[in-house]
Amino acid sequence: MMRDDASALHAANPSTNDTIGRRRPLKMALPRLVLLLAALVLALPAAAQERVLNVYNWTDYIDPAALDRFQRETGITVRYDVYDSLETLEAKLLAGHSGYDIVVPTNEPTFSRLIRAGALAEIDRARVPNWGELDPGLMAKVAVSDPGNRHGAIYLWGTTGLGMIPDRVAKLAPDAPLDSWDLLFKPENAKRIAGCGITMMDSAIDVIPSVLIYLGKSPDSTDPADLAAVERTLMAIRPFIRSFASGGALEALASGQTCLVLDYSGDVIQAQARASEAGRGVVVRYVAPKEGAQLSFDMLAIPADAPHPDAALQFINFVLQPAVMAGITNQVRYPNAVPASRPLIRPALASDANVFPPPALMARFFTVGPVPQAAERARTRMWARFKAGE
After folding, report:
1. Are residues 214 and 290 in the same domain?
2. Average pLDDT of the segment spanning 43-52
3. What is the mean pLDDT of residues 230-252?
4. How far apart, in whole angstroms, are the C-alpha atoms of residue 268 and residue 166?
């Protein structure tokens, strides 16, 4: 009877079994559908799946606690690489596909050149609420390199000057001025100091503008005669330079292996702290020469082809928090551009004029602008001759 009812039902509704029949293949295809979806997920770009941030920064230029905190709070894994010269950073970025999400170029010439080359992305400030923590006066100085401040936020900043062990220098050259570029650039002084070691930072980008200022020229000069004068000045002291270093000068000075360096202010101040901690009687001092010291800004920037731009924006916003920035300054001894961080910085650092220069000292500092490519090539060739002593 039930069978007959079923037959009657089919006769009355001939489409019923067809409908069921159509559903049956769908049920059979479900495992295939799952496999297809899984394959599509696996085919997605790795960047869409992984929670990673690739950072490329200067050597000894971060607070490890900040990286740990960022990873804990966001669940994003930080992969951290370092470089020790602007030339290295620029070469990687201009080659493209560096794989980095955050880079820290100096405002001139690297940051501005990367912007002109289209190698850096514009920053969506709506996604960086802490942008308002930045010092507008300092950001205005950087706007010369980045009109409208569209491509970067100041990370840390400082000057380029002289690091020394004053008692050793004074012993060898008692009448040499410790507050002037004369200490290094006058051959008679360099010759006397050479006995305890002179180290030159290995960066034409940073050294040449300082020599130009010392000679009374514009730090942006492209005049071949001015560059020739720079070369004569450097060649005159070349026999007395023990080594060239970027980053490595810090340890050499802190350990007393060298007694005079041309280096970044923060590196020398780090060397000062390390020498003090070692307790071997090495006293290190930083001097911003009276003729003028180059003021430079290291910028948090995002490569145009960054694989994880969302994580990069999160990182910039995280770093610009006053407490985070204070921790970084306390660790690396470079000043930052977040005024609200000052009360959280160790008093000895916050009151150090070499870390946070007063207005009168800031007035002696200079910034550099973009240099045309042809002039930059000429500078690079001259620097190679200088290093080779030719």
Report:
1. yes
2. 59
3. 90
4. 13
Q: Which range of residues forms the domain containing residue 25?
A: 2-43
Say yes or no: 105 and 134 in one domain: yes
d(CA 198, CA 207): 14
Q: Are residues 289 and 339 in the same domain?
A: no
In a domain, 103, yes or no: yes
Q: Are residues 35 and 164 in the same domain?
A: no
Q: Is residue 226 part of a domain?
A: yes
Q: Is the pTM of this model over 0.85?
A: no
Give me the residue label for tokens 């070349």.
Answer: 238
Up-side HSE of residue 387: CA atoms within 13 Å toward CB? 16
Other C-beta atoms closer than 10 Å to the C-beta of 340 total: 16
362 residue type, one letter: M
Contacts for 242 with CB less than 8 Å, ≥ 6 apart: 194, 197, 198, 199, 258
46 pLDDT higher than 70: no
Please tell me which residue, 33 or 199, carries the higher pLDDT value. Answer: 199
CA distances from residue 28 to 16, 19, 33, 40 in whole angstroms, order as listed? 19, 15, 10, 20
Q: Which whole number is the average pLDDT over 10-26?
A: 36
Same domain, 178 and 275: yes
Into how many domains does the chain fold?
3
E-state strands within 66-187 = 77-83, 102-103, 153-164
- Span 324-356, pLDDT tens digits: 999 999 999 999 999 999 999 999 999 999 899
DSSP letter for 73, please: H
